[in-house]
């Protein structure tokens, strides 16, 4: 409802700036900047809430006529330091620039890609789209994601194990990218999602892309958890964890040691989130448990029966776009 109210108030439209806020011909530069930040912040939030809750986006790019350009860049080089509650007690973290503006612009680009993926592959009309068109859209989306990563400024890049862990917003940027890779490919790997089956070679390629993305998410979240802990993590990171572990359980050879370590990590953070904050995730947990119960080795290491019985008592919920 709040997103619809923004449209009713005209927040999605650029109003020419006037001399001051009382100008009859426009708004002040400050108000114009505020309107842009509020609208695009809401647009970004809407897309990732859409993924988490499984509902269609409320704010669409085609309906907006407001610039993405931000005039005030003070936050770009502002030093970021973690609060005592958001950092691991064993880690000494030195403050560093948050690169908030360039990170926000990068997230906005990912949000527009997410909107296209949802509309092309997860909307009501997508089931009626011919296979050649869907495959063409997939190629276009793959190219958009590749171009996004290739054009990312070096100060926004992060390689776990090689680089020092950056502020959480920069880790979230990378996690969001790999989550969209999974979202795109899973549409063609889930049985029954479309009324056709793709060629085995294409399916294997999509499966490989998903597994690679899942392991990238694992390493990113592992670095995040080591440095900051995931106690107060944004729900988008938990959605990424769920998407990633689902890929591993569905498509990987799970009995290998590194796969079990990956699954165990994701199960740990999702279980913790379920107990403290996400009490509406019963259905996603049932999906994961049913898959893990087929893996005796992984179930033994994770202690599935003991660690998850309490989750069956929680209300229902669903993460639609990753299942």
Automatic annotation (TrEMBL):
<dbReference type="GO" id="GO:0008270">
    <property type="term" value="F:zinc ion binding"/>
</dbReference>
<keyword id="KW-0804">Transcription</keyword>
<protein>
    <recommendedName>
        <fullName>Xylanolytic transcriptional activator regulatory domain-containing protein</fullName>
    </recommendedName>
</protein>
<feature type="domain" description="Xylanolytic transcriptional activator regulatory">
    <location>
        <begin position="1"/>
        <end position="128"/>
    </location>
</feature>
<keyword id="KW-0238">DNA-binding</keyword>
<dbReference type="Pfam" id="PF04082">
    <property type="entry name" value="Fungal_trans"/>
</dbReference>
<dbReference type="GO" id="GO:0006351">
    <property type="term" value="P:DNA-templated transcription"/>
</dbReference>
<keyword id="KW-0539">Nucleus</keyword>
<dbReference type="InterPro" id="IPR007219">
    <property type="entry name" value="XnlR_reg_dom"/>
</dbReference>
<keyword id="KW-0805">Transcription regulation</keyword>
<feature type="compositionally biased region" description="Polar residues">
    <location>
        <begin position="306"/>
        <end position="323"/>
    </location>
</feature>
<keyword id="KW-0479">Metal-binding</keyword>
<dbReference type="GO" id="GO:0003677">
    <property type="term" value="F:DNA binding"/>
</dbReference>
<feature type="region of interest" description="Disordered">
    <location>
        <begin position="301"/>
        <end position="323"/>
    </location>
</feature>
<dbReference type="InterPro" id="IPR051615">
    <property type="entry name" value="Transcr_Regulatory_Elem"/>
</dbReference>
<keyword id="KW-0862">Zinc</keyword>
